[in-house]
Structures
1.
Amino acid sequence: MINNQIRTIVLDTETTGMNNFGKPFINHRIIEIGAVEIVNRRFTGNNFHVYLQPNRSIDSNALKIHGITNNFLLDKPLFKTIAKNFFKFIQNSQLVIHNASFDIGFINQEFTLLKNKTIDISKFCCIIDTLKIARKLFPGKKNTLDALCNRYKIKNSHRVLHGALLDAFLLGKLYLLMTGGQESMIFSNNMGNTKNFESYENLKINKKKSLKILKASEEELKLHEKYIKYIQKTKK
């Protein structure tokens, strides 16, 4: 919080691809993180954006979606280089993500691989899934980021390819419109006592006790696959 105001971070990631059988993040890595800060329902301009070297090749289907190439990432930092700053940026915040289980699964994996113990970032942030909000507002309708932008008349013609920072900014606009001032209520219902959160250096998580890692449901995986096919068709 900033001066007793809720600090909202709207986040998106791009990845090397996704596992089609089981957990989406298995054998895949994050290659881009984009996050924008909102305080008192205003964009502050305090953003976090980074491209990452995943130490594995990017799947061809993922390349068609975000356009990030292996060569482009050759000189980019590893996740361990930016992990501390990233954690500090999102810690104690209200973390807003579209289809949150997908991104959180990848983020948890990155920290777990780095710390060599199971990490659940939802213990340090309040996770709000705008896909779930959209489904309640528009049941039975398409609730992709593009569909919601069209519905709320948010200009997104420049979104030819997916990009974490651009998508986070668009999602931030959507979130403010969808919540209509209710984010404080959502925050209080989902957040624990932030005063007791541990620092990045002192994460004391029991290696023997596995924390629950959020993963996409079967329904969410099917929707994600349909979204990918939709994007591919629009580019032909």
2.
Amino acid sequence: MDMDMLKIVAVPMHPEGRKFVAAFAAIAVVLGLIWEPLFWLGLGATVWCYYFFRDPVRSVPQQDGLVVSPADGVVSLISEVAPPPELELGDVPVFRVSVFMNVFNCHVNRAPMGGTFTQIAYHKGKFVNASLDKASEHNERNGLTIESADGHRIGVVQIAGLVARRIVCFVNVGDTIKTGERFGLIRFGSRLDIYLPQGIQPAVSVGTTAVAGETLLADLNSSQAPVRSVSI
């Protein structure tokens, strides 16, 4: 086993992935009984499944007032829009930062800010490509509002994508969480939208590669230069 493979299998796996890895492994064995080369294809798919559900340790910034990325992926969209009504964040446009996750990204979602969950609302919907702007409105989604101890409120929405068919949320209304702690995941490829408080500018730009729990999206203690609404 080479060093690259060791780096993959040495990363802890989230418990949510155990049943899927077991299923992939069982299929690989059955395929191997049919034709040996198929076993190796199945083994490769099993390793990929393990890699998909990886749950690495992250170095979360400890400074108060920082909003970090809730997901691994690429910042695909930054725009000023009114938050979804279910988040109860008002109807005044605020900056929305969208992080798109492909099937090779880590899909464990982490809290962008510490605080208390005041709203959690699940909506059924479609499964169009999560990189499209309309996915925020039309796709299956789960919206959460977090309120910090000093009164800041942000929204974070888990959005299912073209391949993703299952949104998992580990928290309930009234639960408290620290910045960077795990609150859910999405299977298999999707997007997260983060709605910043009024007057807060994003600290990232479209195309930025984000790391969940580490990449700074905004600083609630300072203002940034305005960011033009663009998408990729």
3.
Amino acid sequence: MDRTASAVWKGTLKEGSGTIDLQSGVFKSQPYSFKMRFEDESGKSGTNPEELIAAAHASCFAMQLSHFLAENGTPAEKLDAKAAVTLIPGTGITKSALTLVGTVPGLDAAKFKELAEKAKAGCPVSKALGAIEVTLDARLA
């Protein structure tokens, strides 16, 4: 199975801009630029590669954990997963910090953390991010 995305860039790094398209059509000509990536700390001016990696990581992790919880006989009512991807200009992406609040009836905190750690290690995006630090802060609601 392949999934695709495309990016078009015009101009220089600092003055140029580009657009991103996703196979699903969720993004069509979504703008991105140097400012959006390196200067806008609010993250509101548009997307950037790190935000897309964070979205991929949080969603992959939540899906993987939901599978492990169901296998355990304790399906989740809700998993609220977030990923914060750290980019250090001149160094690169150094970290993805996962945070999770789960509502899982019938499951104790220790087993929840165990399965969350297993999902962190096993989700395909975590594996793809093997060159960086991946952390997890998981708790039950």
